[in-house]
Amino acid sequence: MTEPAPIRPSWDTDELPQGEEKVAAVQGMFDAIAPRYDRLNRIISFRLDVRWRRRTVRDLALSPGSVVLDLASGTGDLCIDLVACGIRPISMDLSFGMLSADRSGVPRVQTDILRLPVPDAAVDGVTCGFALRNLLDLPTFFAELGRVVRPGGRIALLDVSVPSNRLVRWGNDVYFGRVVPRIGALLSDGAAYRYLPKSVAYLPSPDEMLTALRDAGFDDAGHAQLSGGLTQLMVATRNR
After folding, report:
1. Phi–psi pair at 132, nearest 5 degrees
2. Where are the domains of the chain?
């Protein structure tokens, strides 16, 4: 009698999950990896993630005292940088595990960030780090940003990218496709760190995302590649 094949988590498949399966898979994955998430980020990015987040807060360009939603906030890294600049962040994430590991000390809310529990034009800005590819519907998310950010408010959205330089792209594919999953398996959850490098395939092109942001009320939306295209940052101002 043969033993049944081991059941793989729904994110650990050759085909990326879609629809509500994706939502459940992503939530479960981040609940599972939350305790070691920060440590792995520092290791696999060689601490470049610290620089990328600080650039995000700098380009958000809001005054001290501004109220900012940090969406898909994870363990609160961006919140810590926002507080350091005198900004008042509110941490929001679907993953209870991530919020439980939050060390920023700011207010925390578990919620679906496609349906924010926030009145219209209620906040000065929004940040979001490394989560766009995990969302079910980006146009809906961008529309929510347009709804909750006041006229003249700002957003800064950071995520992974595909380098345009062929050599950098090859090295990035090898490192994140082969090395990072092994590090993840040693120090955290191997299945999750096999999913994360593949999840960039969920992201539309920068032009498509900028068009969707402009449609949502951010006419000046701009895009920049960071560190040779390893990551990308979109910043924009809500139409007055």
Report:
1. -55, -40
2. 28-149+160-237
**What's CA 201's distance to the chain center, in Å?**
14
Mean pLDDT for 209-233 is: 97
pLDDT of residue 12: 67
Block residue for tokens 């807060």: 57
- Tokens 């479960």 locate to 28
Q: What is the dihedral angle through the alpha carbons of 94, 100, 106, 112, rounded to the nearest 10 degrees?
A: 10
* Spatial contact of 236 and 218, defined as CB atoms under 8 Å apart: yes
* Statement: the pTM of the whole predicted model exceeds 0.85: yes
- Which range is least confidently modeled, 3-17, 130-144, 175-189? 3-17
- pLDDT over 90, % of the chain: 82
Q: What is the mean pLDDT of residues 58-76?
A: 97
Pick the CATH number of 28-149+160-237 from 3.40.50.150, 3.40.50.720, 3.40.190.10, 3.40.1190.10: 3.40.50.150
In a 10 Å sphere around its CB, with 0-12 CB exposed, 13-18 middle and 19+ buried, how is residue 3 labelled? exposed
C-alpha angle 43-234-96 in degrees, rounded to nearest 5: 55
Under DSSP, the state recorded for 15 is: S
Going across the sheet that includes 108-110, the strands are: 108-110, 88-93, 67-71, 123-129, 149-160, 231-237, 222-226
Q: What's the rounded Cα separation, in Å, for the pair 121 and 99?
A: 25
**What average pLDDT does range 73-84 have in this prediction?**
97
Residue 6 has pLDDT above 50, yes or no: no
Please say whether the beta carbons of 123 and 68 come within 8 A.
Answer: yes
What's the whole-number mean pLDDT along residues 52-74?
A: 98
Virtual CA dihedral for 24, 75, 206, 142, nearest 10 degrees? 70
